[in-house]
Amino acid sequence: MNNPVEVLGQVVADLDAVLRSDVIARLGDDEKMGLLRVAGEVQRRVGAVVVEVVASVDERPAGSGEPAFCGRYGCRTVNELLQRVVRTDAAGAGRVVKAAKAVRREVGLSSGSWLPARWPALREALVDGTIGVAGLLAAIGPIEQAGSRVGTADRLR
Question: What does the domain layout of the chain look like in residue ranges?
Answer without folding.
Answer: 4-58+89-156
